[in-house]
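If you are new to this repository, start here. Below is one unmodified record pulled from the training split, so you can see the exact layout before writing a loader.
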Amino acid sequence: ALAALARQKAPKALGAIRMGLGDVDGSVRAAACKAVVARGDRGAEERLLKLLERGDDAAAEAVGKLATPRTVATLAESAGRLPDAIIASALSEVVRREDVADPLRVEVLRVIAKLPGAASTAAIMDYLAQPGGKGRPSKDVAQKLLDERGGR
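And here is the target side for that same chain:
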């Protein structure tokens, strides 16, 4: 039902999708996260961040796909408060986006590299494995960060 609502342009549909973000059922929240991304609803960022604070993994992808530079800063400041794997997952989505300027991508990669654990290493490796971007400074930075981590 939420996927169908995502295709509708009516404001009423947007309200129903956002309500889904607060549902007690995790599968409904996950579907609402996907619907928010499908609509490009940046107005849902605060609700998505609250889901992250509750440890809701489904929100990480949506936050990363919709994140503004302000949201990226909020995620960076959340280190130690939110699970590192959730932050790495959200930021991994940010660096993969084509609409993100390379200087911001470099900043995000440096934030990811400061997070401990396998999820942050995997996020850097995933970015390096992404096709395209040859000659981008962010690819060089990512490789350096990975090398500094021992290529783990």
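Two things worth knowing about this chain: The mean pLDDT is 89. The two ends are 41 Å apart (CA to CA).
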